[in-house]
Amino acid sequence: MTPAYEFGRWVRKNSRVLGVALAVGVLAVVIVASRDRGGERTAVPAAASPPKLSREESQAAAAEAERQRQLERERAAEAERQHEIEQQQRFERLKKAALEKSRRDVKACVSSVRARLTFSRLDAYVTGEYGETVNYFGTNEDRFHFEKCMAESGTPLTKEPGSAKKR
To answer: For 66-132, where are the E strands, in sequence order?
Structure first.
């Protein structure tokens, strides 16, 4: 290890001792400096305090500070509104994408069934805000091939008693 590295380790280990030694050294310098002035005891000068403001100046400063806080609150509110708008737009895009995917899958499967079966009477359409409901009708064979195609495309249809077929 180099001497500089060892010295650095010693400083890290003894940082409190060094801090106290520095404070004692500063105090000694202040005492010596006050004695050099002819033995008179003088107080260590305090940090300069800020100048006193008049009533009008302090009121103006308070008004300016309040105006700055109000502007910051308005900026924060505007940022929150913008974030909400972006969230709503993102939600709408996702909803539209889900609906379009459902429509694409149904259209492709209807075309496939109609091409496969010569006298197909199959018809299908998508309903629901997210395209979650698929209504379809036709012969048993048409419905079988349509359900099979939808399952193969990754959107299996489930049967609910009473009405339309749901996915």
So the answer is: 123-127
